[in-house]
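[job 0412] stage=complex_fold ligand=zinc ion status=START
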Amino acid sequence: MHKLIHFLKQANNIVFMTGAGISAESGIPTFREAQTGLWEKFKAEELATPQAFEQDPLLVWKWYQWRRQLIAKNKPNPGHLAITKIQNELKHVTLITQNVDGLHQEAGTRDVIEFHGNIRNNKCSYCSHVENNSDNQSDVIPQCPNCEVNLRPAVVWFGESIPESASQQSMQAASQADLFFSVGTSSRVYPAAGLVELARQNKATIVEINPNATPMTSIADYVFAEPASVALQRIIEVLSLPGDLVNTKSNI
Ligand SMILES: [Zn+2]
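[job 0412] stage=complex_fold status=DONE, emitting structure tokens
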């Protein structure tokens, strides 16, 4: 652990990539688990597509409003807050998240790269207009002020590409990282999983934090087989020790 803390303090570029695991610790069900109540008979894969929105915009809209209401009940957890603290205390900490719930931003992390968009926003399919979804209860789909068409949730749907800017920023961050943390992600879904490989190819030290083993576990330099909130809190505690004490220890 102390060696890792030494790396953390010395690193010029630290990248965190987070996935569903860190949100689950806040009580947010994973995408496929979320189908309960009225929505039990629908499959997420059938609602989260451009085709579904085209065919029945109100159905898809109501599903997203329901999910937004679920998310609004949850708060950032110690894992989210620890990343913010690390970003505030160390230089050049970049966060890439696959989560759409906006909890990292709520926890105060800055310049979050939203790999799969942000469910708290709506966007236009035809122009660059993006706006905050101001009312989670409304069944009226807001309209684009420029195009007068339905706005849609600003998330990446099945069959869609990662937004160009998020993709480019993520690849740049991963390729420049000295230290790359993969947190709460199964590392099975590409292209996100490819970012760990890209960081590895560019000689980054890889840290995996996930309760279960993943395809990346064998290539990671440090593995914390535990929840993000637990592992990141421990890192924060050691990070807070006086610098000399940390630097003189070579064991992990
Ligand atoms: Zn528009």
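The mean pLDDT is 91.
[job 0412] exit 0
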